[in-house]
Amino acid sequence: MSILPDPILVALQAIPFALLIFILQKLVFVPFTEYLEERDRATVGARKEALQLQQDAESRLKDYEAKLESARAEAQQIRSDRRKIALDERENGIAAARGEADQKINDALDTIAGERELAGEELRRLSRTLGTQIAEQVLGRAAPSN
Known about the structure:
This protein is mainly alpha-helical. The chain has one domain. It is built from 1 helix and no strands. The termini are far apart.
C-alpha cells in the first residue's frame, strides 16, 4: 500500500475539475465580478455625485449668505444715510424756526420799545397837562404856556 495516489486517477479527476473551473469562470465568476464592479462604480459614482451636489449646494448657500449679508449692509447704509438726511433736515428746520422766532422776538422788542417810547412821551404830555391843570386849580388862574 502506497501513500502516493495513482497518477492516472489524479489526471482523470483533474480534467473534469479543470473543465468545471473553466466553465464556472466563464459563466459565473466573470459576470459576477463584472456585476460587483458595476455596482461598485454605481455606488461610488452616486457617492461622488452626492458629494458634488452637496458641495454645489454649500457653494450656493455661501453665495446666498454673502449676497444676503451684502443686502443687509446696503440696507443698513441706506437707513443710516436717510437718518442722517432726516436729522440734517430736522436741524435745518429747527435752525429756521429759531431764526424766525428770534426775528419775531426782535420785531416784538422793537415794537415794545417804540410803544414804550410813545407811552413815555404820552406820559410826559399827560403829566404836563395834569401839572398845568393842578397848578390852575391850586392857583385859581390859568398857567402861562411854554
